[in-house]
Amino acid sequence: MVNMNTSQWFCFYKLGLILLNIVYMIVGLTLVVIPAGAKLSAVFTSWPIVGGAIACGVFMILMALAGIYGAVKHHQIILFFVSN
């Protein structure tokens, strides 16, 4: 087993949270871009379906941004509410 002190584990944990939130941001951006492009190319004709997908993407991006902020600033309350 690798001997790592507490600060090294904390840094590793923090980087893991940041990378995971970046993945969530990419998924959220995908949820925004793909339905918008599908609506522009007339694949979908229903605005509620496209709007719902875009709203989910925007919500996911906002949660990922809050997660990144909480990880960088060590803000436990934001991390608690984002993770629940």
From TrEMBL:
Keywords assigned: Membrane, Transmembrane, Transmembrane helix
Bilayer-crossing regions: 12-37, 49-72
Top-level taxon of origin: Eukaryota
The protein's name: Tetraspanin-31
Organism, as annotated: Acropora cervicornis
